[in-house]
Amino acid sequence: MLEIKYPQLRFVRYADDAIIHCNNQAGAEKVLKAIKQRMSECGLEVNGKKGKIAYCKNANRKGTYKVVKFDFLGFTFQPRPTSTRTGQMFLGFDCAISTKSKKKITEVFRKSNFQRWTGSDITRIAEEFNSKIQGWINYYGKFRKFSLMKIFRIFHCRLITWAIYRYKRFKGSFRKAMRWIYELARSQPNLFVHWQHGFQGA
């Protein structure tokens, strides 16, 4: 219905989430009001956190607005430093994995408690997580893959802790266990999927 009423606008939809591109603040407010009215007629309401107007600020759009970012499909869209092919920097409006998505992934690590798997070797840990890691990289790594670095640092810290619990020769030394993991990443770069993608020193 909205596409018919506002054919000049661009709609991006996935399930019950949508982004509507408007040309100005007044137009955005008008469309949001129409959406709320239509949903009310259907006995529904717009999500208070998601139903907002955001200004896509970049080098060409320099206005001052309170909201300049939003989350969609696990990504955060916001103004970010961007470089051209020649290396020149400018302010773009781009996406990267959202903070909420990062927390969901690290929660998987926490719930598994794999740093306490003292009866398992590192191959077992790789078998448990590689398919998940591949999926995360395939999806979230499409845009600004380096933004996944923080996630894999957390994974590595837990992996180092596992090594300390598993092997007495480290004598509780985080540094010794970290060095061992680092050397393992160099000698067996295919052991973990994220090592194959350059996150060996995460």
From TrEMBL:
<dbReference type="InterPro" id="IPR000477">
    <property type="entry name" value="RT_dom"/>
</dbReference>
<keyword id="KW-0695">RNA-directed DNA polymerase</keyword>
<keyword id="KW-0808">Transferase</keyword>
<dbReference type="InterPro" id="IPR013597">
    <property type="entry name" value="Mat_intron_G2"/>
</dbReference>
<dbReference type="InterPro" id="IPR043502">
    <property type="entry name" value="DNA/RNA_pol_sf"/>
</dbReference>
<feature type="domain" description="Reverse transcriptase">
    <location>
        <begin position="1"/>
        <end position="77"/>
    </location>
</feature>
<dbReference type="GO" id="GO:0003964">
    <property type="term" value="F:RNA-directed DNA polymerase activity"/>
</dbReference>
<dbReference type="Pfam" id="PF08388">
    <property type="entry name" value="GIIM"/>
</dbReference>
<protein>
    <submittedName>
        <fullName>Retron-type RNA-directed DNA polymerase</fullName>
        <ecNumber>2.7.7.49</ecNumber>
    </submittedName>
</protein>
<dbReference type="Pfam" id="PF00078">
    <property type="entry name" value="RVT_1"/>
</dbReference>
<keyword id="KW-0548">Nucleotidyltransferase</keyword>
<dbReference type="InterPro" id="IPR051083">
    <property type="entry name" value="GrpII_Intron_Splice-Mob/Def"/>
</dbReference>
